[in-house]
Amino acid sequence: MTRSVSTSAPGKLLLYGEHAVVYGYPSIVTAVDARLIVSIEESQSTTVEIHAPQVKDSRFVDSAIAEFTKLTGVSVGRIRLTTSSAFSGKFGFGSSSAVTVGVLLALSKYFSKPMTQRELFDIAYRAVMDVQGVGSGVDIAAAVFGGTLFYRKGGVTLEQLKIAQLPIVVGYSGVKSNTVELINQVAMKQKAEPEKFDRLMKAIGKLVEQTLDPLLNNDLERVGKFMDFNQEYLRDLGVSCEKLENLISAAKRAGAYGAKLSGAGGGDCMIALVSHEKRKIVEESITAAGGEVVHITPNAEGVKIEL
Ligand code: PMV
Fold first, then answer.
1. What per-residue confidence (pLDDT) applies to 55?
2. What residues line ligand 1, using a CB cutoff of 6 Å?
C-alpha cells in the first residue's frame, strides 16, 4: 500500500495590531476556515516532487523541508507533495504560512517524527524567516494553534482568547498587497519620522490591550470602536489605500460597528464588525463600493491531520 498523509492548516485575519506586532507590540489574530491542504505520498522518484499551485513562492515549501531535515536528520526524498485549497491565495489569508505549517506537520507524521505544537511553531517561524527575513510570525501562530490569539512576536505571548462570537464581514479590495514591501515601507517611516512612529506604535499597542476586555465580554460596540481607532492609526502609518478606505467607509455607512484593513495593508482585505441585522446591508454596500465579499468563518481550528 502507498503511504500517504494529508494535513490542513487555516488562514488568518489580523483583527488588531498589524505592523506594530513586528516591533514587539501585541496583536490579536483569528484563524479562518480558508484551509490549505498539503498531501504527501510515496513516490518512485528519489527527489521530492512538488505540485503547489496555491503557493505563490515555492521557497516556503523548500525552506520547511530544509528546516525539518536540520531538526530531525531525516533526508527527505521519495515523496510527492501536493497542495490544494478551496480558497484563492489572492485574498491574503496567509497561504505562505499555512503551507509552511501544513508541510511540516505532514512531514513529521509521514516520517514519524512527532512534534509539539510549540516545536511546530518555532520551526515554521524559522522556515518563514529564512525566506522572508522579516515578520512577527503572527500568521504562523494562527495556522498552528487556530482560534483567536493574543500574540507577541516570536510567540513570546501566545494566549487563546475565548470569544463568544466574532461577527465579521470580509471585503477583498481587488488589489494584491506585498507584505514584505509594506513592512519595509513602515521601517522607512520609522527612520524618517521616529517620534511620530513611536507614538503610533505605542498607541496601537495600548489599543490592543484595551480591546481584550470588550472582546472577551462580547461588547461589540466597543470592539467596533477600537477597530475604527486602529484604522486611524494604520492610515497615519501610511499603509491604507483608496480602495480599502472606500470599502471601510461603505461598511461604516451601512451600519457596521467598526471597520479596518486587515494585514499588511496597501490592498488585500478589510474587515467590518456587524450585528446580525446589519450583515446583509454591509455586505451589499461593500459589493456596491467595488469590493468582493469573502465568506469565511473566524475562530477556526489550527493545523490538523486529515488522514
Ligand atoms: O500581509 P499579512 O496579511 O500576512 O499581514 C502581515 C501582518 C504584519 O504585521 C504587517 C506583518 C507581520 O509579520 O506581522
1. 78
2. 14, 18-19, 21-22, 92, 94, 135-136, 138-139, 179, 183, 263-264
Q: How far apart are CA 287 and CA 43, in angstroms?
A: 45
pTM score, whole prediction: 0.96
Residue closest via CA to ligand 1's atom 10 equals 264
CA of 28 from ligand 1 middle (Å) equals 12
Ligand 1 centroid, distance to 135 Cα (angstroms): 7
pLDDT in the model for residue 2: 62
Pocket test of ligand 1: the residue of 139, 181, 200, 237 to mutate, having most ligand atoms within 8 Å of its CB, is: 139
Task: Give catalytic residue positions.
Answer: 139
CA 264 – ligand 1 centroid, Å: 5
Within the chain, which residues score under 70 in pLDDT? Answer: 1-2
- Please tell me the distance between residue 250's alpha carbon and the centre of ligand 1 in angstroms: 24
- pLDDT value at position 191? 97
Which residues 6+ apart lie within 8 Å of 294 measured at CB? 34, 91, 170, 171, 172, 269
